[in-house]
Specification:
With about 140 residues, the protein is mainly beta. About 15% of the residues lie in helices and about 45% in strands. The protein is built from one helix and ten strands; from the N terminus they run ββββββββββα. It is globular, with a radius of gyration of 15 Å.
Length: about 140
């Protein structure tokens, strides 16, 4: 049985082309915010819940394969060569898998979260990946 969790996303461009994304529950309550940090060598996004910093996501310099660092509760993220499939894990198990569906007019990601309590965190990572790609394509 598949459980559906609903979120709403509002995007804003702040400062000089950096991203700020707010995630809302269906009743309109802001659950989390992602802010792109400016003046960094590689793209970096900070995660906030109720205006409290909870972690970050940053692209690392690599030559063949995309490499990202997730600094949040000792979790890591690994992606495939085409930059379309990701796995979020901690030291003991897989937390979520993320895949991009092809042949859509917009970016469509499937997020398979093993524990519903991690759904918001997995969504924040997907949004940061998508925002990083958007920033890279605009440069």
């Amino acid at each position: 049985m598949m459980n559906m969790i609903m979120f709403s996303i509002q995007s804003a461009v702040v400062f000089h082309g950096s991203h700020k994304l707010d995630v809302y529950d269906p009743s309109g309550h802001c659950l989390a915010t992602i802010k792109e940090e400016i003046l960094t060598f590689m793209p970096r996004f900070s995660f906030y819940i109720d205006d409290h910093y909870i972690g970050s996501f940053q692209k690392k310099l690599s030559f063949l394969f995309p490499k990202y660092v997730l600094e949040f509760n000792d979790r890591s993220i690994d992606g495939d060569f085409m930059n379309w499939n990701y796995t979020i894990s901690d030291s003991y198990h897989e937390i979520a898998t993320i895949s991009k569906e092809l042949f859509h007019f917009t970016d469509v990601y499937v997020i398979d979260v093993h524990n519903s309590q991690d759904a918001l965190y997995a969504l924040l990572v997907v949004l940061a990946i998508d925002a990083e790609k958007c920033s890279a394509s605009n440069n």
